[in-house]
């Protein structure tokens, strides 16, 4: 089994928005940041000694603007195909996220007013359509793409054979990563209960660490404890009729 190294690529701040470079037999990029981030991501990739022409795939974890915003640009810069789940084709092909955003708490309600989250990104059509669990062996990586719906319908994570879970927005660092190591919801979820079920399913695979779109790596045991509290919180919201999910 070949080892895979997970390298964070900061797109905004030190940890506020992350893309990732996965280094195996061939390199793979996970996520593409906000619109206009393509060259910034590529500069960090080349600084790691990676030839852009060697990149075998660009995996987009879900259809939010801070994750797919520069997918088309990165495709042009590298020539690598883009992979995305079929359930998020709408945002990818239109360049627009599903609206309205559904906040998970006060930070989400504040961020939903940010005009930058409502812009149109350059559309793209994934050359590699994900429908279920998919091996990345053909792309030179000892890893699997795992569907993890809930944050959006087409959310995916990447699980390496070493046990690293590149989790997109399945979970986040507290306050968009400003509090290192503390698990929290990202600002938005389309279906919080489905997302929690996806998170629990990934935790059952015993990942060594969770590498998130917003924040530093999270310890799996600490995320398990958070997930138990989140289950109880969602049950209370549901009982009070205050749990909102996207119906589509």
Main features:
248 residues; alpha/beta; 6-stranded mixed sheet; 5-stranded mixed sheet; 28% helix; 23% strand
How do the helices and strands line up, and which of them pair or pack?
Elements (H helix, E strand, L loop, with lengths): L4 E8 L4 E7 L3 E4 L7 H10 L9 E3 L5 H4 L2 H8 L3 E4 L3 H6 L11 H6 L16 E3 L3 E2 L7 E5 L8 E5 L3 E5 L3 E2 H4 L1 E6 L7 H12 L5 E4 L7 H20 L9
Parallel strand pairs: 3-4, 4-5, 5-6, 10-13
Antiparallel strand pairs: 1-2, 2-3, 7-8, 8-9, 9-10, 11-12
- Series of secondary-structure elements, N-terminal to C-terminal: EEEHEHHEHHEEEEEEHEHEH
Global mean pLDDT: 96
Helix content: 25-40%
Largest sheet: 6 strands, mixed
For the largest beta sheet, what order do the strands appear in spatially? 1-2-3-4-5-6
Question: What coarse outline follows from CA principal-axis ratios?
Answer: globular
Q: Report how far the terminal alpha carbons are from each other.
A: 41 Å
Uncertain segments are: none
How many strands in all?
13
Oligomer: single chain
- The fraction of residues assigned to DSSP E strands is 15-25%
How many helical stretches?
Answer: 8
The Cα radius of gyration reads 17 Å
Structural class estimated from helices and strands: alpha/beta
Walk me through the structure.
With 248 residues, this protein is of the alpha/beta class. Helices cover 28% and strands 23% of the residues. It is built from 8 helices and 13 strands. The chain has helices spanning 38-47, 65-68, 71-78, 89-94, 106-111, 174-177, 192-203, 220-239; strands spanning 5-12, 17-23, 27-30, 57-59, 82-85, 128-130, 134-135, 143-147, 156-160, 164-168, 172-173, 179-184, 209-212.
